[in-house]
Amino acid sequence: xxxxxxxxxxxxxxxxxxxxxxxxxxxxxxxxxxxxxxxxxxxxxxxxxxxxxxxxxxxxxxxxxxxxxxxxxxxxxxxxxxxxxxxxxxxxxxxxxxxxxxxxxxxxxxxxxxxxxxxxxxxxxxxxxxxxxxxxxxxxxxxxxxxxxxxxxxxxxxxxxxxxxxxxxxxxxxxxxxxxxxxxxxxxxxxxxxxxxxxxxxxxxxxxxxxxxxxxxxxxxxxxxxxxxxxxxxxxxxxxxxxxxxxxxxxxxxxxxxxxxxxxxxxxxxxxxxxxxxxxxxxxxxxxxxxxxxxxxxxxxxxxxxxxxxxxxxxxx
Length: 317
Fold this sequence. Notes:
Helix content is about 35%, strand content about 25%. With about 325 residues, it is of the alpha/beta class. The protein has a single domain, classed as UDP-N-acetylmuramoyl-L-alanine:D-glutamate ligase (3-Layer(aba) Sandwich).
């Protein structure tokens, strides 16, 4: 495998498209869509579409796995999910066409106790170890389900590293802070958004210069590649060659769902292909720009993505 995504707390994404979201009002939906979701699942879908040999792993409720199983089969993703007792959560996304954004309602997920956590963790490690080889990219993505602590992720990261994996972390809050403080070796790639980075550093980052300074501080902690997504304002990219502000092209926005996953997957695909920073992250941004133009999952032809990448402006910082 070239990429394995680990999603401890996947979700069924139920997207409801509205002309405009008005709090307190009754709405008639324009459309709805159910999609296998969770940060790692979204990354796996885009990575597979870009041609990477990809496996999706994590914990999946055994009462409603069908949507995920169908999605994996249709997209050419190896199913390495561990089934656990319960129902995978549903996250509701209200897509507002007038504003060009979405309102998310995220449920907590399957609850674990100490015994079930130990069993699920052992089963996950057993599923992953045969898939990991030297240089395999592994992502730890999204939130943790209730009852599962960061120690589980630390043990998982250690086991993956021991087999030669390159580690990408895409989570936030206290989980991210604890991982960075306690991992013996820093991750190879980190992609916080501005809010997650502000929470990590404990202060507002109002300007691009402050975001860049925080990204470079992460680099100084040993993290190889850092991309801080700024939504419609682009991204701050920090790597071995320096630090840049990447300004995206203006495109029509159908939904913001999946944009971050597309950025991660595109960047990883470019790294696997041998591109370096900032070019790899620019390709990831182009994948995100392509993703937000369509409600349905998937990407346009590769030539269209490369054309979007050519329109992204890099400014050294």
